[in-house]
């Protein structure tokens, strides 16, 4: 399968040094929303959407406190739909959207692909529909799915993939797998894609900084703080990061990347 790496939201939080680990304390940081567009014979699959057209056009109503916190650039040209169109496709060509989780910087563009089936782990869909905690009520922006998406609910368990549980996102395809990685949210998942050059593992927000899957692990103060505030389960996230480090060590042929690290995105685009 041919895979395109898309940045569907540039975010510029305060302090490049604290967020990216380089640059000055007063310069803006840089985060991305790393999404995948997968070409299949029967249509396209989008892994995460980033922010959507409505987020760009109505940022305060759609995103609220995320605007001053993440300081997103909100450029319509960066939305998934505009990049899909730029590659010569239509919204209707995107038959499936697989979401790592339903935070707005990952699922804000669902309404731009109204005919697509939206694949999500059942635990994540339950958390978004019936939040248990104040943190869950704050994180999910139901306005992003008021268009009533064609949800496809997936249960965890089933096949194995390099020591991880795996769920086929599409019934007929063993090259597109959901890899449960709970912690950041209740039903967070990675997405593994077997591309022409080998396996890619989109880790979503299982980690934020490339150093977290290195040995020994390292991160930046700003991203550690964001993770701590956003995590549904700190212990589960840390355990899954340890598993990802082991995977990276045992299977260097698998390309791991998270949603927001700009170095990983630039490397993937360059490759």
- CATH class reads Alpha Beta
User: What's the arrangement of strands in the largest beta sheet?
Assistant: 1-2-3-4-5-6
**Alpha carbon gap, first and last residue:** 16 Å
Can you give the mean pLDDT? 96
Helix percentage: 25-40%
The parts where pLDDT drops under 50 for at least 5 residues are none
Protein model, in words:
- This protein has a single domain, classed as Metallo-beta-lactamase, Chain A (4-Layer Sandwich), CATH 3.60.15.
- It is 30% helix and 23% strand.
- The chain is built from 11 helices and 12 strands.
- Strand 2 and strand 3 form a beta hairpin.
- The longest helix has 17 residues, at 234-250.
- The model has no long low-confidence stretch (mean pLDDT 96).
Characteristic terms for this protein:
Metallo-beta-lactamase, Chain A, 271 residues, 11 helices, six-stranded mixed β-sheet, alpha/beta
Tell me briefly what this model is.
The chain has 271 residues and is of the alpha/beta class. It contains eleven helices and twelve strands.
SSE topology:
Layout: E1 2-7, H1 16-20, E2 34-40, E3 43-47, H2 53-57, H3 59-63, H4 66-70, H5 80-86, E4 94-98, H6 104-107, E5 117-121, H7 122-129, H8 134-139, E6 150-154, E7 159-161, E8 164-168, E9 176-180, E10 189-195, E11 198-202, H9 221-230, H10 234-250, E12 255-257, H11 262-270
